[in-house]
Amino acid sequence: MGTRVIVVGAGLSGLTSALILAEAGFRVRVIAKEPPSRTTSAAAGADWGPYLSDDRRLLGWSEQTRQTLVTIAGTEPSAGVTLVHGLEAERFPVPTPTWAVDLPDFAVCAPADLPPGYAVGWWFTAPVVDMPRYLEYLEARLYREGMAVELEAVSSLSDMTRQADIVVNCSGLGSRELAADASLLPVRGQLVVVANPPDNPVTRFFQDHGSREPVTYYLPQGDKVILGGCAQEGSENLEVDYDLAEAIIARCAAIAPQLGTAAVVEHRVGLRPSRPSVRLEVEWVDGRPVIHNYGHGGSGLTMSWGCAASVLALARALAVAADRRG
Ligand SMILES: Cc1cc2nc3c(=O)[nH]c(=O)nc-3n(C[C@H](O)[C@H](O)[C@H](O)COP(=O)(O)OP(=O)(O)OC[C@H]3O[C@@H](n4cnc5c(N)ncnc54)[C@H](O)[C@@H]3O)c2cc1C
Questions:
Q1: pLDDT-wise least confident of 50-59, 130-139, 232-241
Q2: Which residues line ligand 1 (CB under 6 A)?
Q3: Beta-carbon count within 10 A of 30 CB
Q4: Which of 20, 292, 304, 3 is nearest to 145 (CA)?
Q5: Alpha carbon of 32 to ligand 1 centroid (Å)
């Protein structure tokens, strides 16, 4: 009959976890109060790169995800994943991050090639993901496994444990209520999507995630470019701040001047679900197991496949233990 799993949440964490579980033979339902297109995940830029998360397991999850995204980029043209070469730079001298040096085409940037005002930088190729398209791709894969997201607000995880053998909690900031987690903190992000200037297109990404605000980055995605950003701790304001949007465009145009006059296509705002470390562990609720997978901060895409693989490993161990108990 198979182990019945309910995944709560249909952002990156929920869809990726549901997919990996379904493809491994679990009988999965996905329940979420918002469809994928209205999640934080849909508002993200996004590119691969560990950011705003100090979790010690981060590097393993990130590398596993990078490898999967590289495969998807090479095999699934409709998924919205492309491999883009670009520069990460910092205004202050900082050591090169350990995750970067192991990348296949990592290279330290020559001082003469750094934008004005920057102290250090390094080149590498990263998966860049058109998030709305990528979420549609994940949903389509789920659909092929016989699943569609069921839209419903969950009021308690206990309600879910009564309907399944295992519950996987991927509710992001919703875990403030569902898991009574007071350590979750929204970190507001805002992006501007512009048309990629056809006469002088941006082909490389740039990112200054900076140890300090403001963060500045742009990610080319074919005929558009995503410009960021900000990291406003504690803000839950989902309204577009147009002054900030202007400032973001100006900061990006200081690095790539053609972005200064590019047509604005869209504004995006989202709240990163941050906590001191990702919560990926089993909790027993009313005698039934809940696997938590939330709190990915600014690295939810970067860790998505690695975290989903850890969810699968926990689910398999729980299923084996349940079989032994008979
Ligand atoms: C502007 C911005 C840029 C970003 N850029 C990047 C980037 O470049 N790279 C990167 O790796 N990450 C990036 N991130 C971070 C990334 O977007 C998040 O870490 C990730 O989206 C979190 O995904 P999630 O599935 O855990 O949560 P979410 O996407 O928030 O999904 C949570 C789901 O849970 C559901 N839910 C919540 N409560 C309930 C309830 N009570 N009942 C039922 N369902 C519920 C919601 O409806 C939703 O479906 C960015 C974020 C922002 C905002």
A1: 50-59
A2: 8-14, 32-34, 39-41, 43-47, 153-154, 170-172, 174, 178, 189, 191, 229, 270, 272-273, 294, 296-302
A3: 27
A4: 20
A5: 12
Give the burial string for 230-260 (b: 16+ CB within 10 Å, else e).
bbbeebeeeeebeebbebbbebbbebbebbe
Q: What is the 120 CA–ligand 1 centroid distance (Å)?
A: 31
Residue located nearest, by CA, to atom 44 of ligand 1: 32
Q: Quote the pLDDT of residue 76.
A: 96
pTM as predicted: 0.96
CA 316 / ligand 1 centre spacing (Å): 25
Q: Are 309 and 68 in contact (CB under 8 A)?
A: no
pLDDT at position 114, please?
95
The alpha carbon of 152 is separated from its chain's Cα centroid by a whole number of angstroms, namely: 23
Distance of alpha carbon 235 from alpha carbon 54, whole angstroms: 21
Q: How far is the CA of 129 from the centre of ligand 1 (A)?
A: 14
Contact 291, 3 (CB under 8 A): no
Of 47, 31, 39, the residue nearest 12 (C-alpha):
39
For the chain, how many helices (H) and strands (E)? 9, 15
How far is residue 271's CA from residue 251's CA, in Å, rounded to a whole number? 21
* Alpha carbon of 271 to ligand 1 centroid (Å): 7
Token readout for 271 is 């709240």
